[in-house]
Specification:
two-stranded antiparallel sheet, 104 residues, single chain, 2 helices
Length: 104
């Protein structure tokens, strides 16, 4: 258990391989640089009755008018939570979430 990289609340860092993670409450506040709410998660696509796991990606979320649609600019311009830039991360056993880069 360590502090969240955004709010400082103590939370589990299990699966983050030593990185500073963002807690679930702060993760829910993630936006693009222009303030559009996004989520980072795994997704799947079904083609000809075969389910393909496509890996993690960014998607707009409610209340954005494009909720559920991919948010490709998040890869280019970054994701922000309360003025802090966060990085998407896929950790141990498929854990997906955000981490805060620490300053050495």
């Amino acid at each position: 258990m360590k502090p969240c990289g955004v709010c400082g609340i103590i939370c589990s860092h299990l699966g983050a391989r030593g990185n500073i993670i963002v807690c679930r409450a702060c993760t829910n506040k993630a936006t693009t640089i222009d303030g559009r709410p996004v989520t980072f998660d795994e997704w799947a696509e079904k083609r000809n009755d075969v389910l393909y796991l496509m890996g993690p990606d960014f998607f707009y979320k409610d209340p954005d008018p494009q909720a559920g649609q991919p948010a490709p600019e998040a890869w280019e311009t970054g994701v922000w939570i309360e003025g802090i830039q966060v990085t998407p991360y896929e950790g141990v056993a498929g854990w997906t979430g955000f981490i805060v880069k620490s300053n050495p």
